[in-house]
Amino acid sequence: MRDRGSTWLAELQDVSFRYGTRQILDGVTLRFQRGRVTAIMGPSGTGKTTLLRLIGGQIHADRGRVQVAGRDVARLSRAQLFELRKRMGMLFQSGALFTGLSVYDNVAFPLREHTALPEAMIRDLVLMKLQAVGLRGARHLMPNQLSGGMARRVALARAIALDPMMIMYDEPFTGLDPITLGVIMKLIRKLNDTLGLTSIVVSHDVQEVTAIADYVYLLSGGRVVGEGRPAELLGSSSGWVRQFMHGLPDGPVPFHYPAPDYGADLLDGARESA
Amino acid sequence: MMSSLQRLGRMTLRFFARLGRGNLFMLRVLAGMPSVLPRFRLLVAQVYHVGFLSLPIIVVASLNVGMVLGLQMYNTLVDFDAESALGPVVALSLVRELGPVVAALLFAGRAGSALTAEIGLMKATEQLSGMEMMAVDPVRRIVAPRLLAGIFALPLLAILFSAVGIGGGYFVGVGLLGVDEGAFWSQMQDKVDWREDVLNGIIKSAVFGVVVTWIAVFEGYEAEPTAEGVSQATTRSVVFSSLAVLGLDFVLTAFMFGEP
Ligand SMILES: Nc1ncnc2c1ncn2[C@@H]1O[C@H](COP(=O)(O)OP(=O)(O)OP(=O)(O)O)[C@@H](O)[C@H]1O
Ligand SMILES: [Mg+2]
């Protein structure tokens, strides 16, 4: 492919995006290096999922450019976009397994839709992918019989079914017990390194991210407020970065939602009820 | 006064905007149809799903409707010494009106609501989004086969409704009330026209099949992706499709049976 040359598999340049009148992203520039695990961190609601949707071409930026493998995502035709998506895996926050299909059929789904492989070969591939996430034995289960961690692993197996060049994880660590968490962390790293993937991990779990990411972007209020290798960020002197990375309750991000003066507020209440 | 006028205006605008979106959606689905036809198994599974699951309710309801019809018509006809006309009266009511309409209403309640809920839930749980990210168009893969299945299934259900209903009318009229069996059937054969009555009834139910399934899949696809949104969409689906069936029935009846 002609895009092999660049170090960056995906790039967002000065991207802005809003839902209705609400500005979600406000001029962010992010780059994702080939073969690396890059994390995007930030508080809830800062537009991390939105970022992934932009990269996947499900929504388009109001301003700026989103490039994947050297192509401007917003400019692709639907067919070209679908071609590109076959080479991107995405793990949704909820797993998004097809509830009507078994584990096996879920993983087989992209293969059956996009290849003309005989069923015997699809079987081999599905078992291989399930083996990679340790769930070959669970192939007959239905999604509602899976625990949260298992569902996420199945979704992971499905996301790598077509051997993508890139995989995006939306909050892969939330709501897992410590053991499963360790399993998922190992898997993300292992798949990245053995399959030669490029990984984008969206999360707000500082510990997990600093353990597996090669590079981290910190997002807040629709802007990039910090970036660097995990160790650099942990040692950062910037107030906001320190507050987020060390989980301090008060700092540049106030503990209180904006409100009128406390004393005046209480007096108002007394006056109204009088 | 002004504000209620404004509200009316806003509701009208919203209705037409929705209708427009519905039509655009239908075009997308139709464009996806050709890719469904070769995937015969997908289609058969859906016909089973939407059609077969409505069978019990259709059979039970049609039997009851037929029996009630037999009883009521008998009571009226017997006053005119015309109880031998029970056969054609029951058959015509069912084949022309009750079969297509009641089957469509039941279908909207049973299969239509299930379709809306299924698609809405798939949307709420990001399954549709996930499919798109896997480079599979959910309109083709999920919506188109379901619409096609609904269009196939409802006419079959309506025919079944009429047949079982006539059986119910026969049971009450001939079996319980003593109408002459020969008269019941021969009069029916005499008065019910194949093309004029039966075929028109089937055409009606085919139209209802399109409308009910269309509304069902559209409401599901447009549902707000939350538990509450899905439940609202399901309600809307049943209400709108039932109203559409009743409204269209009048229009179709006027066209088909209106001329002397
Ligand atoms: N379809 C939508 N329409 C309108 N607003 C939306 C929509 N999707 C998301 N938003 C808003 O955009 C903001 C960013 O959403 P996003 O899902 O990207 O946040 P996030 O960083 O992924 O948060 P979390 O960590 O909670 O998943 C949120 O405040 C949300 O309310
Ligand atoms: Mg999110």
Keywords:
heterodimer, A: 274 residues, alpha/beta, Rossmann fold, 6-stranded mixed beta sheet, 4-stranded antiparallel beta sheet, 10 helices, B: 260 residues, mainly alpha, 9 helices, binds adenosine-5'-triphosphate, binds magnesium ion
Number of strands of chain A: 10
Distance between the termini of chain B: 45 Å
Unreliable stretches of chain A:
none
Share of helical residues of chain B: over 70%
Instruction: Report mean pLDDT of chain A, rounded to a whole number.
Output: 86
Class from secondary-structure proportions of chain B: mainly alpha
Tally of structural domains of chain B: 1
Shape of chain A: globular
Provide the structure class of chain A: alpha/beta
Biggest sheet architecture of chain B: none
Largest interface: A-B, 20 and 15 residues
The neighbouring-strand order within the major sheet of chain A is 6-7-8-3-9-10
CATH 4th-level superfamily of the domain at 1-87 and 166-175 and 194-230 in chain A: P-loop containing nucleotide triphosphate hydrolases
What CATH architecture of the domain at 1-87 and 166-175 and 194-230 in chain A would you give?
Answer: 3-Layer(aba) Sandwich
- Which small-molecule species are bound to the chains here? adenosine-5'-triphosphate, magnesium ion
